Protein backbone atom coordinates (compact mmCIF):
# COMPACT_ATOMS: atom_id res chain seq x y z
CA UNK A 1 0.00 0.00 0.00
CA UNK A 2 1.53 3.34 -1.02
CA UNK A 3 1.97 6.13 1.52
CA UNK A 4 -1.01 8.19 0.33
CA UNK A 5 -3.41 5.25 0.57
CA UNK A 6 -1.99 4.28 3.97
CA UNK A 7 -2.54 7.67 5.54
CA UNK A 8 -6.02 7.95 4.04
CA UNK A 9 -6.79 4.62 5.68
CA UNK A 10 -5.51 5.94 9.01
CA UNK A 11 -7.28 9.30 8.94
CA UNK A 12 -10.67 8.65 7.28
CA UNK A 13 -13.58 6.31 7.87
CA UNK A 14 -14.19 3.74 5.07
CA UNK A 15 -17.14 5.64 3.59
CA UNK A 16 -15.17 8.89 3.62
CA UNK A 17 -12.21 7.19 1.90
CA UNK A 18 -14.47 6.11 -0.94
CA UNK A 19 -16.00 9.58 -1.11
CA UNK A 20 -12.51 11.11 -1.17
CA UNK A 21 -11.26 8.91 -4.04
CA UNK A 22 -14.34 9.67 -6.15
CA UNK A 23 -13.84 13.37 -5.44
CA UNK A 24 -10.17 13.25 -6.47
CA UNK A 25 -10.89 11.28 -9.65
CA UNK A 26 -13.59 13.74 -10.64
CA UNK A 27 -11.13 16.64 -10.22
CA UNK A 28 -13.89 18.57 -8.49
CA UNK A 29 -13.19 22.17 -7.50
CA UNK A 30 -15.62 21.92 -4.56
CA UNK A 31 -14.71 21.25 -0.93
CA UNK A 32 -15.36 17.79 0.45
CA UNK A 33 -16.53 16.87 3.96
CA UNK A 34 -14.92 13.73 5.42
CA UNK A 35 -15.36 11.89 8.70
CA UNK A 36 -12.28 11.31 10.86
CA UNK A 37 -11.41 8.02 12.53
CA UNK A 38 -10.84 9.88 15.83
CA UNK A 39 -14.28 11.44 15.63
CA UNK A 40 -15.37 14.70 14.08
CA UNK A 41 -15.44 15.95 10.51
CA UNK A 42 -13.33 18.30 8.44
CA UNK A 43 -13.76 20.06 5.13
CA UNK A 44 -10.92 19.73 2.61
CA UNK A 45 -10.42 22.04 -0.34
CA UNK A 46 -8.82 20.75 -3.55
CA UNK A 47 -5.24 21.46 -4.50
CA UNK A 48 -3.38 23.78 -4.74
CA UNK A 49 -4.51 24.40 -1.14
CA UNK A 50 -2.53 22.61 1.58
CA UNK A 51 -5.58 21.35 3.48
CA UNK A 52 -4.63 17.70 2.89
CA UNK A 53 -1.06 18.32 4.06
CA UNK A 54 -2.31 20.05 7.20
CA UNK A 55 -4.70 17.19 7.93
CA UNK A 56 -1.88 14.69 7.46
CA UNK A 57 0.46 16.47 9.89
CA UNK A 58 -2.15 16.79 12.63
CA UNK A 59 -4.17 13.58 12.38
CA UNK A 60 -1.64 11.09 10.97
CA UNK A 61 1.87 12.37 11.73
CA UNK A 62 0.41 13.47 15.10
CA UNK A 63 2.30 16.75 15.20
CA UNK A 64 0.67 17.67 18.54
CA UNK A 65 0.92 14.30 20.25
CA UNK A 66 2.16 14.87 23.81
CA UNK A 67 5.58 13.34 24.52
CA UNK A 68 5.68 10.81 27.37
CA UNK A 69 7.76 13.06 29.63
CA UNK A 70 5.22 15.88 29.43
CA UNK A 71 2.76 15.70 32.35
CA UNK A 72 -0.88 14.95 31.67
CA UNK A 73 -3.05 18.03 31.38
CA UNK A 74 -6.76 18.70 31.59
CA UNK A 75 -6.96 22.17 30.06
CA UNK A 76 -9.97 24.37 30.56
CA UNK A 77 -8.69 27.24 28.37
CA UNK A 78 -6.68 26.75 25.16
CA UNK A 79 -5.24 29.54 23.02
CA UNK A 80 -4.47 28.56 19.41
CA UNK A 81 -2.36 31.15 17.58
CA UNK A 82 -2.13 30.47 13.86
CA UNK A 83 -5.18 28.22 13.59
CA UNK A 84 -4.95 27.95 9.77
CA UNK A 85 -8.13 26.20 8.51
CA UNK A 86 -9.17 24.90 11.92
CA UNK A 87 -7.91 21.31 11.90
CA UNK A 88 -5.93 21.92 15.09
CA UNK A 89 -9.09 23.25 16.75
CA UNK A 90 -10.94 20.04 15.90
CA UNK A 91 -8.00 18.06 17.30
CA UNK A 92 -7.89 19.98 20.60
CA UNK A 93 -11.65 20.02 21.02
CA UNK A 94 -11.89 16.24 20.60
CA UNK A 95 -8.87 15.56 22.81
CA UNK A 96 -10.03 17.91 25.59
CA UNK A 97 -13.84 17.95 25.48
CA UNK A 98 -14.15 20.13 28.61
CA UNK A 99 -12.05 22.96 27.19
CA UNK A 100 -12.93 26.37 25.82
CA UNK A 101 -10.76 27.74 23.02
CA UNK A 102 -9.80 31.03 21.42
CA UNK A 103 -8.29 30.95 17.93
CA UNK A 104 -6.32 33.65 16.12
CA UNK A 105 -6.02 33.52 12.32
CA UNK A 106 -5.60 36.50 9.93
CA UNK A 107 -6.05 34.87 6.51
CA UNK A 108 -9.63 35.48 5.26
CA UNK A 109 -9.81 32.21 3.29
CA UNK A 110 -8.61 30.26 6.30
CA UNK A 111 -11.10 32.04 8.54
CA UNK A 112 -13.93 30.93 6.30
CA UNK A 113 -12.72 27.33 6.54
CA UNK A 114 -12.38 27.61 10.33
CA UNK A 115 -16.03 28.59 10.63
CA UNK A 116 -17.06 25.78 8.28
CA UNK A 117 -15.08 23.20 10.25
CA UNK A 118 -16.40 24.44 13.58
CA UNK A 119 -19.94 24.31 12.22
CA UNK A 120 -19.42 20.75 10.95
CA UNK A 121 -18.44 19.73 14.51
CA UNK A 122 -20.98 21.85 16.45
CA UNK A 123 -18.12 23.75 18.09
CA UNK A 124 -19.12 27.35 17.45
CA UNK A 125 -20.19 27.71 21.08
CA UNK A 126 -16.82 26.46 22.39
CA UNK A 127 -14.38 28.34 20.16
CA UNK A 128 -14.00 32.12 19.92
CA UNK A 129 -12.42 33.03 16.58
CA UNK A 130 -10.45 36.26 16.21
CA UNK A 131 -9.69 37.28 12.63
CA UNK A 132 -6.31 38.81 13.19
CA UNK A 133 -2.64 38.00 13.59
CA UNK A 134 -0.98 38.15 17.00
CA UNK A 135 2.34 39.64 18.06
CA UNK A 136 3.70 41.81 20.89
CA UNK A 137 2.01 44.98 19.63
CA UNK A 138 -1.13 46.31 18.01
CA UNK A 139 -0.44 47.25 14.41
CA UNK A 140 -1.50 47.14 10.82
CA UNK A 141 0.71 44.86 8.79
CA UNK A 142 0.73 42.55 5.77
CA UNK A 143 0.35 38.81 5.25
CA UNK A 144 1.91 36.72 2.50
CA UNK A 145 -0.63 34.58 0.66
CA UNK A 146 1.19 31.27 1.00
CA UNK A 147 -1.35 28.75 2.36
CA UNK A 148 -0.09 27.09 5.58
CA UNK A 149 3.19 29.02 5.36
CA UNK A 150 1.61 32.48 5.19
CA UNK A 151 3.65 34.89 7.30
CA UNK A 152 3.30 38.42 8.64
CA UNK A 153 5.64 40.99 7.05
CA UNK A 154 6.08 44.67 7.86
CA UNK A 155 6.00 46.10 4.34
CA UNK A 156 3.72 45.65 1.37
CA UNK A 157 4.99 43.70 -1.60
CA UNK A 158 3.19 41.91 -4.45
CA UNK A 159 1.31 38.89 -3.17
CA UNK A 160 0.60 40.33 0.29
CA UNK A 161 -2.51 41.95 1.74
CA UNK A 162 -3.27 44.18 4.71
CA UNK A 163 -4.19 42.63 8.08
CA UNK A 164 -4.60 43.67 11.69
CA UNK A 165 -2.15 42.52 14.35
CA UNK A 166 -3.23 42.29 17.98
CA UNK A 167 -1.09 42.48 21.09
CA UNK A 168 -1.20 39.02 22.68
CA UNK A 169 -0.48 40.40 26.13
CA UNK A 170 -3.48 42.70 25.97
CA UNK A 171 -5.64 39.87 24.62
CA UNK A 172 -4.77 37.41 27.40
CA UNK A 173 -4.23 39.82 30.29
CA UNK A 174 -4.23 38.03 33.64
CA UNK A 175 -6.16 34.99 32.44
CA UNK A 176 -4.69 31.55 33.06
CA UNK A 177 -3.87 29.76 29.80
CA UNK A 178 -3.69 26.01 30.34
CA UNK A 179 -2.38 25.31 26.84
CA UNK A 180 -0.89 27.76 24.35
CA UNK A 181 -0.37 26.48 20.81
CA UNK A 182 1.54 28.78 18.46
CA UNK A 183 2.52 28.23 14.82
CA UNK A 184 3.06 31.52 13.01
CA UNK A 185 6.03 31.03 10.67
CA UNK A 186 8.67 32.93 12.69
CA UNK A 187 6.29 35.40 14.31
CA UNK A 188 6.75 33.54 17.58
CA UNK A 189 10.06 35.24 18.41
CA UNK A 190 8.85 38.79 19.19
CA UNK A 191 6.21 37.27 21.48
CA UNK A 192 8.56 35.05 23.47
CA UNK A 193 11.31 37.70 23.56
CA UNK A 194 8.96 40.29 25.08
CA UNK A 195 9.60 40.76 28.81
CA UNK A 196 5.86 40.70 29.45
CA UNK A 197 5.79 37.00 28.62
CA UNK A 198 7.38 36.33 32.02
CA UNK A 199 4.23 37.65 33.69
CA UNK A 200 1.76 35.54 31.71
CA UNK A 201 0.17 32.58 33.45
CA UNK A 202 0.76 30.00 30.72
CA UNK A 203 0.97 26.46 32.09
CA UNK A 204 1.93 24.56 28.93
CA UNK A 205 3.15 25.52 25.46
CA UNK A 206 3.26 23.57 22.21
CA UNK A 207 4.99 25.64 19.57
CA UNK A 208 6.40 25.24 16.09
CA UNK A 209 9.79 26.90 15.87
CA UNK A 210 11.14 28.14 12.52
CA UNK A 211 14.56 29.08 11.26
CA UNK A 212 14.40 32.66 9.96
CA UNK A 213 16.86 35.27 8.75
CA UNK A 214 16.68 36.95 12.17
CA UNK A 215 16.80 33.68 14.13
CA UNK A 216 18.79 31.18 12.02
CA UNK A 217 18.76 28.50 14.75
CA UNK A 218 15.17 28.58 15.94
CA UNK A 219 15.39 25.34 17.90
CA UNK A 220 18.24 26.46 20.16
CA UNK A 221 16.83 29.97 20.57
CA UNK A 222 13.44 28.63 21.57
CA UNK A 223 14.83 26.08 24.02
CA UNK A 224 17.06 28.63 25.73
CA UNK A 225 14.34 31.25 26.00
CA UNK A 226 11.75 28.86 27.39
CA UNK A 227 14.18 27.44 29.95
CA UNK A 228 15.04 30.99 31.02
CA UNK A 229 11.32 31.56 31.61
CA UNK A 230 11.21 28.60 34.01
CA UNK A 231 9.83 25.94 31.67
CA UNK A 232 10.92 22.37 31.20
CA UNK A 233 11.33 21.72 27.50
CA UNK A 234 11.32 18.71 25.20
CA UNK A 235 11.11 18.23 21.46
CA UNK A 236 7.86 17.04 19.94
CA UNK A 237 7.18 14.29 17.45
CA UNK A 238 7.37 16.38 14.29
CA UNK A 239 10.70 17.89 13.29
CA UNK A 240 12.04 19.12 9.96
CA UNK A 241 15.47 20.64 9.18
CA UNK A 242 14.16 24.22 9.43
CA UNK A 243 11.13 23.82 11.72
CA UNK A 244 9.74 21.58 14.40
CA UNK A 245 7.61 21.16 17.50
CA UNK A 246 8.63 21.98 21.06
CA UNK A 247 6.68 21.33 24.24
CA UNK A 248 7.25 23.40 27.37
CA UNK A 249 5.59 23.15 30.79
CA UNK A 250 5.80 24.41 34.35
How would you describe the overall organization of this protein?
The strands form 3 sheets. This protein has a 7-stranded mixed beta sheet, with helices on both faces. The chain has a 4-stranded mixed beta sheet with strand order 6-9-7-8. The chain has 250 residues and is an alpha/beta fold. It has 2 domains: 1-60, no CATH class; 62-249, Rossmann fold (3-Layer(aba) Sandwich), CATH 3.40.50.150. Helix 5 (108-120) links the parallel strand 4 and strand 5 (127-130). The protein has helices at 3-11, 14-26, 51-60, 87-95, 108-120, 168-172, 188-193, 218-228, and strands spanning 32-35, 41-44, 77-81, 100-104, 127-130, 133-135, 139-144, 152-153, 160-167, 179-182, 204-210, 232-239, 243-249. The radius of gyration is 18 Å and the shape is globular. Helices cover 30% and strands 27% of the residues.
List the helices and strands and how they pair.
Elements: H1 3-11, H2 14-26, E1 32-35, E2 41-44, H3 51-60, E3 77-81, H4 87-95, E4 100-104, H5 108-120, E5 127-130, E6 133-135, E7 139-144, E8 152-153, E9 160-167, H6 168-172, E10 179-182, H7 188-193, E11 204-210, H8 218-228, E12 232-239, E13 243-249
Parallel strand pairs: 3-4, 3-10, 4-5, 6-9, 10-11
Antiparallel strand pairs: 1-2, 7-8, 7-9, 11-13, 12-13
Amino acid sequence: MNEKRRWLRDILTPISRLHYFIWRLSKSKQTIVVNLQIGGRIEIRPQPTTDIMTAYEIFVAEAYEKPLQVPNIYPKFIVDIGANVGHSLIYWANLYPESKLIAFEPHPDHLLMIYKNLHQNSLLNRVLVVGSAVSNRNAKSFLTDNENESAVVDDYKPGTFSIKVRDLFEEIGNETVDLLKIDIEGGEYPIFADQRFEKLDVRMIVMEWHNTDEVPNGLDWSKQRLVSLGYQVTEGKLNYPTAGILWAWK
